[in-house]
Amino acid sequence: MKDNFSTQSADYAIYRPTYPQELYDYLFSLVKSKETAWDCATGNGQVARVLAQYFDAVYATDISENQLKNAFQQPNITYKVEPAEQTSVGNASFDLITVAQAIHWFNFEAFYTEVKRTLKPNGLFAAIGYGLMFIDKKVDKAVHKLYEDILGKYWDSERRYIEEGYKTIPFPFEEIVAPHFQIKTTWNFNQMIGYLNTWSSLQHYKKANERNPLEYMFTELKEAWGDDAEKDVHFPVLLRIGKLA
Length: 245
Prior knowledge:
The chain is of the alpha/beta class. It contains ten helices and eight strands. The protein has one domain: Rossmann fold (3-Layer(aba) Sandwich), CATH 3.40.50. The protein has helices spanning 9-15, 21-29, 46-51, 65-69, 108-118, 137-150, 159-163, 189-196, 200-209, 214-225, and strands at residues 36-40, 57-62, 77-81, 94-100, 119-130, 174-176, 182-187, 231-243. It is globular, with a radius of gyration of 18 Å.
């Protein structure tokens, strides 16, 4: 699995959007027991922190030690530096396994083997993510210019799974058709810039060119933003839920 987020892990904890409570309520309504959960590729522990409010124990793993250093600490969360494809837990350990905005980086076959090994017979697996945000026509146009024209070749090939709404990832489970959810938040201009700085493609660009591409886009983004102190921001949520077939 690629580690594209260690270098900006502090910004990731600050600027990445959070999933709506409605999503969690729906997901938890499907889980029969709430003893143990595994949040795989937990990053800064955003999802693990919510799981910890409902489950007795949460196991949260990531390959990035820097990400885990910025993670939310709670007594019933155990953080481990481990790859998604190989964990140190026993068979049939978890009532729920989640992976948020990360499954597209995995070796699918190896990861799913680990999911099937560690999931309880009545357990649930959920792959969660979000697509490109939309704000308004002017801002979206400028952001798309950055996304496609400037950073297009710097996105990893796995990004296509996000663009395809996770519909094309392998999914060897008995699938539960989920409703559509959105992340809804409010940002000021600096929060948008902070979020854009967390993009893996932007980090790739900086390494290749020794400059931040936002230097070229800052004025255009600012003009597109206009005089509004804050704007509404929406992200489409990607969600695949399944149980052992």
